[in-house]
Automatic annotation (TrEMBL):
It comes from Zophobas morio. This is Major facilitator superfamily (MFS) profile domain-containing protein. It is a multi-pass membrane protein. Keywords: Cell membrane, Membrane, Sugar transport, Transmembrane, Transmembrane helix, Transport. Gene3D superfamilies: MFS general substrate transporter like domains. The chain crosses the membrane at residues 23-42, 54-72, 78-98, 110-130, 136-156, 219-245, 257-278, 285-306, 318-339, 360-379, 385-405. Residues 1-409 form the Major facilitator superfamily (MFS) profile domain. InterPro entries: MFS_dom, MFS_sugar_transport-like, MFS_trans_sf, MFS_Trehalose_Transporter, Sugar_transporter_CS.
Amino acid sequence: MHRGWSAPAYPKLSSSGITNNDIMWLEAIYFLGELISIPFAAYMVDRIGRKTTILLNTAVGLIAWTIIALSSRVVPFYVARFLAGATGNISMVSVSIYISETANPTSRSWFLGVICFAQNLGTLMVYGLVPYFPFYVPSILANVVLVCQLVVFNFMPESPYYHVLTKRENLARQALSKLRRHDNNDDEISTIKTTIKANESQWENFKGIFGNKRNRKGLLIAVGLYAGLQFGGFSFTLMNVAYIFTKTKSQYLKSSLAEIVFAVLMITGNVLCLLCLNKIGRKNLLLLSLTVSGLFLLGVGVYFTLMDSGLDLASVGWVSTLCITAYAVSFQLGFGSLIEPMSAELFSTKSRALGTTFTNAVDAVFGVLAIVLCNFLVGNFGLSVTYYLFAGVSFLTIVFVGFFVPETDGKSLQEIEGIFET
C-alpha cells in the first residue's frame, strides 16, 4: 500500500501547498528508508527470528500509517514515508526468507508469487481510496489489516531453519509438524542440517557474501535483476500513473480511473503468473514478461515522440492506453511478481539474511537513482526519451536473464545450493 500511495495522493498534496520537489522526495525517501533499515533487517532476522521480526515490523507499520492519518504537513509525511520504506524492506527480507524456508519445494514459487499479489492488492486499495476519501480512511483500513496480521501470524510456527541454526532441533521438529501436518519429518530435518552444515565455513558478515564464490554469483544475479526492475521503469510508472495518462491526452481512459485500472491489471498479471508458474517455469516466465513489457514500453516511447512532434493523435489515443495498461499485465506476469521474492534463494543459508538485506539495499539505491534520473529526463527531454530508456533496459535484462539466471522452480534449497556451487 505504501509504495503506490504517492500516485493517488499527488493531487491532494499539490493542492495543500506541498511542492513538486517535495513530492519527488516523498517518493525517493521511501527508498532511503529501505536503505537505512539494512543493518536492522539483517540483525533481527538472524538474532530474534524470522517470525518475531515480521511481528515487530508489523507494529512499526501501524505507526507509519497513523502518522499519515494525522498529518497535513510535509515533514510528518517524510517521517511516515521513511518508516514505510524501512518496514517494506524488513518485510520483504523476513517474509521472503520465511516462505523460502517453510514452504514445500513444489509450492514455494507459488507462495513467493503471492507476496507480489498482496503488494498489488494493497496498491489497488490505495488507488481506490486515496483520491476519494481523507487520508485517515485508507490509513485506518491499512491498520485494520496490520492488526489482523499481528493476531493471525502470531499462531504460525517459526522457521525450522532458524531453529536448527540456533541449535534447537526439537523446536524445528515441532515447527515442521505444524507446517507439514504430520510428525514424520526426519528426512527434512536431515536435509536442513546438511544444508546448514555445508555453509558452516562461510563468514556471517559481508565477507561471507563477497568472499564466497557461491554468494558472489547470487549477488551478481540480484544486482542485475534489481537494475532491470528499477531502471526498467516500473516504480516510476507505478508512482506516476495519473500524471502519465494525463500527458497522453487520451480520451479512452480518464486519469482519475487510470490508477485503479492499472492496479487491477497488475493483479491480473499476478494471477496469470501464479497459474502459469508450475507449467511454464520461472525463467521462461521472466523472459516472456520482459519481452512483451519491453515492446509495450517501446510503444509508449514512440507515441510520446509522435505527440512531441506535433502530430494530432486523437484518433489513435487508444494506442497509448493499450500500451500502458497492457504493460501492467505483462510486467506482473513474470518479472514484477518474481524478482523481489526470489532473492532469498540466491544466497546460502548462513548468508541468506544478510544477502537478502544487501540486495534490498541495492534495490533501494537503484530506486532512488531511478526516481531522480527519471524526473531529470522527463523535465529535460520528455516522457519519450524516458520510456525509450525503460524499453532498452528491459531488452538488456532479457539477455542477462538468459545467460545468468538459473531455473530454480520446483527445486529444494539444497538442490539450489548445488546449482550455485557449480
